[in-house]
Protein 1
Amino acid sequence: MQQPRLSIAELDRLLCAEFPQAFNTQSGLRIKEVWHGGARVERAFDGASLRPGGTISGPTIMMLADVTIYIAILATIGWVPLAVTTNLSVNFLRKPGPGALVAECRLVKVGKRLAVGEIAIRSVGQEDMVAHAVSTYSIPSRSADGDIIPSN
């Protein structure tokens, strides 16, 4: 089995430097595990993420899904910060109560220009999914020496 191209420590360092607004000590995001083809990310509970009815908001769940596939892709192909979401589809399955969430992404396909993955999101310590997402990312082209080739 292939090893991830980036470790948790490397991803933490690079993401904090490149995206300080999203990856910082107050964000509540923590990379739990990475492997070639996947990642597991936890989001600590934050009362500000609750919506009326005492459930975690949809945008919070969607953000966790998007972050988790992004981390899975970077762990698998290496540092390509210009990879971007082209599609994110989320099925909300049950209301998560106030508490931490954990998302696990399994990459279904990683090509030269696109990566597709599915993400299962659960309340920490629970078996049943609260949401299931499928996402596609666009991966920028690279030259032979690894530089990003601008798209036309």
Protein 2
Amino acid sequence: MAIDEILINAQPGQTRVALLEDGRLVELLLARGDLAGVAGNVYLGRVEKVVPGIEAAFVDIGLERVGFLALPEVRPFGVDGGGDRIGDYLSEGDAVLVQAVRDPEPGKGAKLTTRVTLPGRYSVFLPMEPAVYVSKRIEDRETRHRLKVWAEKLLEDDEGLLLRTAALDAEREDLAREAGSLRQVWTAICGARDTKRPPQCLYAEPGPAQRAVRDFAGPEIRRIRVDDPQTLKQIETFCQEHAPAPGGCLEGHVGPEPLFAAAGIEGQIDAAREALVTLPSGGSLIIEGTSTLTAIDVNSGGGGSGGKEATALSTNLEAVEELARQVRLRDLSGLLVVDFLRMRASRNRQRVIEALRHAAAPDPRTPHVIGFTTSGLVEMTRRKQGEPLDRQLGTPCACCNGSGRTLAPETLAFEILRAIPPEARANPGKALRVKAAPGVIEALDGAAREARTEVERRLARPLGLVPDETVGPDTYEILTEN
């Protein structure tokens, strides 16, 4: 996937950035008050607690919850960590410079590291790691060597640099200018560290619009459209100082329709929240997530002219491209399990794995395709940084508590009948009425009528039924009257 267009919708309190490839939404970046991510921010924190049992520390960085700092994220560069302990590096009350690598989650604080990195367009500055790395996506050996030599000449003692794929299109002067700019940011962070008191944010990552321009506005970008004049000016200033955009591609949105609606993005966002994703051939993907993993099922659209094996292979190869796009768009992470159509030939299974790895390669969150399990499923993992898209855009259903299902009316009707006798014993002599959704009342007067009649006989009194459309499908109320 090569991002060729960036759309930026800025409104009071919220910014949305759509990354497109050939008009299709590949990734959606959001920022609003309750979705203000902290990943990438650098903090001066205070160690609140050191826990030897899990070899980790909890660090107050000024957020609602303390951050989590594990032993591997504390070790200095070059230390193998054979028998070291978290207590060798940190004590309660210490001030510590940390960077958030993952946003807080419900019930969890941000994940932290002491190995600060500062990203630019062409490179990532490693102020505490004296080494030079080149993106694995740059495969040509001579190019890798040339870039590495350039980088080594730019660095001072104890500094390192990771050259991103975008460095392929950079001149030596571009790399030098960016390294100098990032070094200035690091110098400012160190100065603030020596004068501030924890907890304190010392450096905040740019907003989603600036990040998108920095990370994706390479030579492939045809157009960057912004629908807010003030935001457009801010991006122009950012480009002048940090990440020049390709000439002439940055423009304001003009037209009667809102930007996202005019580009068909709103519908694509809505579709990204659905479990069913259709494929051009008539097949489909079913994407369903739990708290621990995401399951993706590939379904065939019907017949094919080349037999069962050929149809399975062609459908799976078609599904691979859409699967990689959906994983990135929905920001799925952790363990992903894919149930492709079954193929007998090992060479066909290998083709699917290679195609999946190739399709997932442009994803900046670096998915790792493990391969087929003995049961015929494909496992892959993707690094987590924040909440998936559906949780950013939605909230758990008040009726089903986020399960996606509610109780059947008949099930709730029998549950009500079980609750009636205890309520009657607690209120002797009082009339009882049930207030519930109309479908539940119909079940009490239909499928559960015989059981309701028996309950009424044992109570020696009738049971009043009150349909109420304002009552949720999973709830009810038993009313008592003298």
Protein 3
Amino acid sequence: MKNRVIWLLIISLLLIFSLTCIQTHSQVERIQSNSINYNLNPTIDDIRLNYEYHSAIDIYNDVDLERASSMGFGTIDDPYIIEGYWIADDPFDGILIRDVTKHFVIRNCLIENCMNGIYIDNAATSIVNITNNIIINNDWGIWVIDSLNAIVSDNNCSFNYMGIYLDTTGYTIVKNNTCNYNVESGISIENTLGLEIINNSCNYNQNDHGIRISNDDDTILIQDNSFNYNPNGDGMYVWNFGHGTMSGNSFIGNQNGMYLESTNYIILEDNVFSDNSLEGASLYYSDDFTITENSFSNNQNYGLKMHESRRNGVHHNYFYDNNLGGTSQAYCDGTSVIWYDIVTSEGNYWKSWYNGSYPIDGSAGYYDIYPLDLDPPEIDAVPDIEYLFGETGNNIQWNITDLNPTTYTVYKNFVEILTDSWANGVPIIINIDGLDNGTNVYQIFALDAFGRSSLDTVIVTVTAVIREFNGETLVIFSGLMVALSVYLLRNKKKRNNY
């Protein structure tokens, strides 16, 4: 009877376990089945729900443009509107607009897997506004050609062959776009007349540059963009244009941060050039630049290189750890280049430079004769010192460097013992003989002309002399110890007898 109960219990447990496994396996299969398609790209799948699916849109004249628009009258104040569509998987263009004269806006569309996401050709008398679209996985994301007054803003043009391409355009604004992870450049612009490129992201593009610009004939503004981590190209490549300002941009982790050729009359200010595998900024045959308030740091070669470039002014820039192991952080072989501000007689900051004029590599033999001093005095640290009481010839020697030295103060045990002026590279020597046994704290406090300071502390320890025993002294000492021991033993016996 007892054995039957045991067997029944075992069989019941096995049945329950089997049913549980079958149910669990069925749940897993159902979960997997429901998620196979969704998990291919859940982010895009979710986004697509916000759009109305539409076949490719081809517009060849103003009549076609009016028919394709959901609202508007084609005027400046009330342009035609094309919006809200999801267009995908077309072997030609997602939206093509050609030979129109009316004003129009393309906005809030998702276009993927087409030849060109948006292609605009010959809208020369129109104001073209392409804004807030997602354009991914196409050959060209946005292509505008032979058109004036284009505004391309707030679009995501990533994962295409080319993000944004403008050719033969005028007075164009390219603003707040994301153009990352494209096969070639994030943005490419040719033959433009007037251009503003503001706050765009052109990062991680694979086989070309973050942005490529050529043949611009009028004022250009390139401001607050990131051109970073384009591994096989430059952050910015520019050829043959002039008159403009490039400010507030970052050029990090590219080959050259910036490469400019045959480019003139540019203000280059407040940009960051860092961690590029070649130069931070390279200027070839580029004249009449003002280069100021830029940061050049940790570039493999020169922070700034100028070849056959003339009449450029370079001042108030910051150079940190470029061309490590070389003799200079900058290179120049052009003519009439001035490495300081002629009004203030202030040059550039070169990290850890304390020796007068700063040499610039290159056959022209330039110097920054007014290098800026932004570092506090540099004190070579002195190790702690220990000597025996009565020894002589003990000193603390401090070596201090700075471009603009003024005064120093020495403290012993936190009490001032000396204040004097100091000269760059001339050692300060403090004698510490004659100290009593014990520990003393010596400190030096160095100032430069700009009020920057440095402090170094040295602990000086003096120890007592321990004399060595000679043979005669040892015999006497041993005899005294024996006599003392005999005396103590006799006294102990007497106390025990009592």
